[in-house]
Structure formats: structure tokens, C-alpha cells
């Protein structure tokens, strides 16, 4: 399976296009409306770069459970690896690696809440080692996966 | 986090019935109350305090933000366009309709309690 090819195909099949909607009500703009218009005008990045980087984010959201490499993620954005990391960080404020880690931790939280055991959750969210997963989970949430599950059980929503 | 509102009862109605929050705590405190709501997705998550606006300088601050169109706060949502359609049908007024701003789509609504509230979706 080639996740990049699959993803590109999905995008094309869905006919994904980017529509920029910019509607400001009335003619007398508020301070905030003016600021938004100004930021949009002065943004240092071209619209197509936002679109490309968004594609990489969607790629990670879709393939977080697979063993995906930075080169594949950059390819989903149609950029070289170095350029991609720089632009991604400029747009989202974190590196792609950190972003993918956050996606995986959030998915893991949802699975642990459902009652799945830690080992299953580890593999379900793309990690191939339970200690690595547990350590990443603890750094992201402050709790180990087991403690997180216990806490959730004692504080049902 | 706290949000100043000009009328706690009206705010509770708007934030639960229109925006979909769930009431978490309501403790009477003199003429006002400690009133919090939470997201329906995370009932043990961050609580939003609907705080009475009794302090005069706070009224000045809130009005200045409102008049400038600046959101008092921003809520993350998965689909701004869908929320915009739903809320507009429910009679909610927007000062900024869904607008793409680089990596996010935003919209700004009037909470009828003296605040502009921004909805934001990461694209």
C-alpha cells in the first residue's frame, strides 16, 4: 500500500478545491475586520502553499496509524523535505513530527477512553513499541496511558 | 476560563440552547451566581465561567472590545461552515461570515450578552 498515492487519489476523487470565502458584513468595517483584511493581504505565503501544507495535515490525520515517514508527509504537500518542515512550522507553529505525535496522542486518548488495552492502543496509533508510546503519551498528557485510563474510568463523562 | 456577560440567565440560555454547551455548576452567590458550562464533547474538560459584569471598568473593557468587533474569546470547532449555517438558521448574528485566514477558517458571532465570539477551524 502506498499511502501517498492513495491520499492523492482520494483528493482528486473528491475534487477538492480551495474556496476562499471572504465576506465582511456592511461597508463600515470594525477594527477587527480591518485587521483581518490587513493580515490576509500581508501574509508572506502564497495561497497554494497553504493548500499544499493543508494536504499534508490531512494526510497525517488519515494515516496516523501507519508507519509514515517525514519524506512521505512532505510528498503529500508536494514539497522538498527541508522546505516543507520550514513552511509547516511557519503555518502551524509546530514541526510536522510534533504535529503527528499530537494527532496520535489524541487518537490514543479516545481509544483508551473506550476501554482498549494499552498495547492495542499503542499499535492502533502507529507506534511499534509500548515503552516509546507510553513515554510519548506521558510527555503529552502528564499521565501514563494506564493512569489516564484509570482516571477516565473514575471520572466518567 | 471566564467570560463576562451582561445577564447570566440570558447567557446560560444562549450558551446551552444555541451554542450547545452543557451546564456544569450553578451556585447562588448573593444577587449573582457561580455559573459554568462545558463542552458536550468533554464534560470533564475546561469549564467556561459565565461571569456577571458588575464591575464598572469591566463594562468599559467589554464594550470597547465589542465596538471594535474584537472577539472576547475563540472556540475551536471541527466545521465552521456547518456551525455558521446552523446558528444563522437559529437567528444568531455574525459580524464575520466564514472566512479563510491561512491555516484556519474563522467566523465571528454576537452572543447577545455583550460579546463577539469567534469560531475557528484548523484547515
Task: List strands and helices in order, with pairings.
The complex is a heterodimer of chains A (157) and B (123).
Chain A: H1 3-13, H2 31-42, H3 47-63, H4 70-76, H5 81-92, H6 96-113, H7 118-124, H8 130-141, H9 145-154
Chain B: E1 2-5, H1 8-18, E2 22-29, E3 32-39, E4 42-52, H2 56-68, E5 71-76, H3 80-89, E6 94-101, E7 104-110, E8 116-122
Parallel strand pairs in B: 1-4, 5-8
Antiparallel strand pairs in B: 2-3, 3-4, 6-7, 7-8
Task: Produce a short descriptive summary.
With 157 residues, chain A is mainly α. Helices cover 68% and strands 0% of the residues of chain A.
Description:
The complex is a heterodimer of chains A (157) and B (123). In chain A, helix 3 crosses helix 4 and helix 6 packs across helix 9. Chain A has nine helices and no strands. Chain A folds into two domains: 1-93, no CATH class; 96-157, Orthogonal Bundle (Arc Repressor Mutant, subunit A). With 157 residues, chain A is an all-alpha fold. In chain B, 28% of the residues lie in helices and 48% in strands. Chain B has one domain (2-122): 2,3-Dihydroxybiphenyl 1,2-Dioxygenase, domain 1 (Roll), CATH 3.10.180.10. Chain B contains three helices and eight strands; from the N terminus they run βαβββαβαβββ. Chain B is globular. Chain B has a four-stranded mixed β-sheet, covered by helices on one side. A four-stranded mixed β-sheet of chain B has the order 5-8-7-6. Chain B has helices spanning 8-18, 56-68, 80-89, and strands at residues 2-5, 22-29, 32-39, 42-52, 71-76, 94-101, 104-110, 116-122. The model of chain B has no long low-confidence stretch (mean pLDDT 94). Chain B is an alpha/beta fold. Chains A and B meet through helix 2 and helix 3 of A and strand 4, strand 6 and strand 7 of B. Chain A: Keywords: DNA-binding, Transcription, Transcription regulation. Chain A: InterPro entries: Homeodomain-like_sf, HTH_AraC, HTH_AraC-typ_CS, Tscrpt_reg_AraC-type_HTH. Chain A: This is AraC family transcriptional regulator. Chain A: It holds the Pfam family HTH_18.
Amino acid at each position: 500500500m502506498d499511502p501517498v498515492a492513495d491520499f492523492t487519489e482520494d483528493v482528486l476523487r473528491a475534487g477538492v478545491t480551495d474556496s476562499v470565502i471572504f465576506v465582511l458584513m456592511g461597508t463600515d468595517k470594525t477594527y477587527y475586520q480591518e485587521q483581518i483584511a490587513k493580515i490576509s493581504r500581508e501574509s508572506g505565503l502564497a495561497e497554494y502553499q497553504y493548500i499544499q501544507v493543508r494536504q499534508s495535515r490531512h494526510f497525517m490525520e488519515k494515516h496516523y496509524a501507519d508507519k509514515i515517514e517525514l519524506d512521505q508527509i512532505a510528498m503529500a504537500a508536494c514539497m522538498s523535505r527541508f522546505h516543507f518542515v520550514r513552511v509547516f512550522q511557519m503555518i502551524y507553529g509546530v514541526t510536522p513530527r510534533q504535529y503527528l505525535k499530537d494527532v496520535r496522542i489524541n487518537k490514543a486518548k479516545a481509544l483508551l477512553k473506550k476501554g482498549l488495552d494499552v498495547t492495542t492502543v499503542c499499535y492502533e496509533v502507529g507506534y511499534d513499541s509500548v515503552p516509546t508510546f507510553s513515554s510519548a503519551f506521558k510527555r503529552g498528557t502528564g499521565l501514563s496511558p494506564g493512569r489516564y485510563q484509570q482516571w477516565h474510568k473514575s471520572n466518567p463523562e | 476560563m471566564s467570560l463576562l456577560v451582561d445577564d447570566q440567565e440570558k447567557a446560560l440560555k444562549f450558551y446551552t440552547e444555541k451554542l450547545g454547551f452543557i451546564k456544569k455548576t450553578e451556585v447562588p452567590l448573593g444577587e449573582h451566581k457561580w455559573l459554568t458550562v462545558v463542552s458536550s464533547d468533554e464534560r470533564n474538560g475546561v469549564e467556561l465561567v459565565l461571569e456577571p459584569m458588575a464591575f464598572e471598568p469591566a463594562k468599559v473593557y467589554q464594550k470597547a472590545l465589542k465596538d471594535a468587533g474584537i472577539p472576547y474569546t475563540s472556540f475551536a470547532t471541527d466545521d465552521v461552515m456547518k456551525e455558521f449555517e446552523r446558528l444563522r438558521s437559529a437567528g444568531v448574528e455574525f459580524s464575520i461570515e466564514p472566512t479563510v485566514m491561512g491555516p484556519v477558517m474563522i467566523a465571528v458571532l454576537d452572543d447577545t450578552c455583550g460579546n463577539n465570539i469567534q469560531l475557528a477551524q484548523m484547515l
